[in-house]
Design goal:
Elements (H helix, E strand, L loop, with lengths): L1 E7 L21 H14 L7 E3 L3 H12 L14 E3 L16 H4 L3 H8 L12 H19 L4 E6 L1 H12 L16 E6 L4 E8 L45 H7 L18
Helix pairs in contact: 1-2, 5-6
Length: about 270
């Protein structure tokens, strides 16, 4: 099954203060660069079939740090992997709200609708959140098809985009996507099987990643991987718990993994995360 690593960009100087949207020229601040370096180090040993990024600077810079730590590829200089840019995973088009302070936007009547029924929202002069979800999910599915069922690839995008993609993978209505937290430079992992997606990690900011390495051939020696989408209740192919915790669970994501260091994150100030 195809494994997708969904990474939100690192912190900027105005994360949590301004609704950036597609504002150009806003890159990572020093905290964001440190976050990207830490995540790049954690993922350095994970083979990636592709790194796909939003076109916006904060994502491109985060993806570039991850790409810089990759093994040498056939068409890339040592230590660098190509970054593919896909506008479909770019930030929601917030229209007239772009660049405004979140504290000011919270006083708008539409803000209450954004919180209570986001599927009904079209931002003034901008995009409907349901369209943001549609293009993001379509991009993921098409990259999965292009790269194949054994691929592991990384998508670097934005909080709202990742949450809408994750809501789809969880079978949640878009109106419930605010229940999902996606912090700056967090790692979320979804494996797409023949029958349904499996959400393996959510908002991981500092755990071990060994469970993301390619699975070995089955014991029968037929070269086939265990079918995770056929596992029920921890049967064949399920990973055994370590000290009562399965790899990739909340306990590990909180820093229980070996040598995991939690990256600094901005305190949540709103349900729209620039």
């Amino acid at each position: 099954m195809t494994t997708v690593l969904l990474v939100r960009h690192g912190l900027t100087a105005v994360t949590g203060k301004i609704l950036l949207g597609w504002t150009p020229g806003v890159g990572l601040d020093e905290r964001g660069r440190q976050q990207a370096e830490a995540l790049a180090g954690r993922l350095a040993g994970i083979p990636l079939a592709a790194i796909v990024s939003s076109p916006l600077d904060r994502c491109q810079q985060t993806a570039a740090e991850i790409a810089r730590r990759r093994p040498e590829g056939p068409s890339a200089p040592a230590g660098v992997q190509k970054i593919d840019t896909d506008e479909r995973i770019g930030e929601c088009h917030y229209g007239d709200w772009t660049g405004q302070e979140l504290a000011t936007l919270a006083k708008e009547p539409l803000w209450k609708v954004v919180q209570a029924q986001p599927s009904a929202v079209t931002f003034p002069g901008g995009e409907a959140l349901r369209d943001t979800q549609s293009r993001g999910v379509t991009a993921v599915r098409e990259w999965n098809e292009r790269l194949g069922p054994d691929a592991t690839w990384l998508l670097c995008s934005h909080g709202d985009v990742i949450r809408t993609v994750l809501a789809d993978a969880l079978g949640m209505h878009l109106d419930m996507y605010h229940r999902i937290t996606v912090d700056p430079c967090s790692l979320t992992v979804v494996r797409y099987g023949d029958h349904r997606p499996f959400v393996r990690r959510v908002n991981d900011v500092g755990g071990a990643v060994a469970d993301l390495l390619p699975a070995p051939p089955s014991p029968a020696g037929d070269g086939k991987r265990p079918r995770e989408d056929e596992v029920v209740g921890g049967g064949a192919g399920a990973e055994p718990p370590v000290d009562g915790v399965r790899p990739g669970t909340v306990s590990e994501a909180a820093g229980a993994g070996s040598g995991g260091a939690t990256s600094p994150v901005a305190p949540p100030t709103s349900k729209l995360e620039p």
